[in-house]
Amino acid sequence: MTDDRSKSAESLANDKAWEELVKNMLRAEMMRRGVSYAALAERLAEFGITDNELNLRNKVSRGRFTSVFLMQCFMALGVKWIEMPESLAAATQPGAAQSLAKRNSHPLSDKGH
To answer: What is the C-alpha to C-alpha distance for residues 8 and 13, in angstroms, rounded to an integer?
Structure first.
């Protein structure tokens, strides 16, 4: 029984790291574009998705949202290229969203392509 509990706790910890990753990736894309939660709500409304600033802030802060919501946000933000971080650990450290936002948004963007 102890093994089941430790596996469950390990899985939960892993899930929390993944939630932190998607939260930081979304926040990084918002930072890159200078888009606030209020502006994101307006952009989502253009796609027929109604949510207010507070709800968006809470949803993103928790990091618990569907892949559909993530893609809706990326579309509303105009994301054309998704750059994955080098590691889960790097993407979940404090300040990770800011670090991700400072990276090039496309690997060819600085090569003139």
So the answer is: 9
Q: Let me know: does 77 contact 105? Beta carbons within 8 Å.
A: no
Domain ranges of the chain: 2-102
pLDDT 10s per residue in the chain (113 long)? 445 555 555 556 788 899 999 999 999 999 999 999 999 999 999 999 999 999 999 999 999 999 999 999 999 999 999 888 888 888 888 988 988 888 865 554 444 43
Q: Count other C-beta atoms under 10 Å from residue 76's C-beta.
A: 20
Amino acid at 56: L
Angle, alpha carbons 62-22-48 (nearest 5°): 80
Decide: pTM greater than 0.90.
no
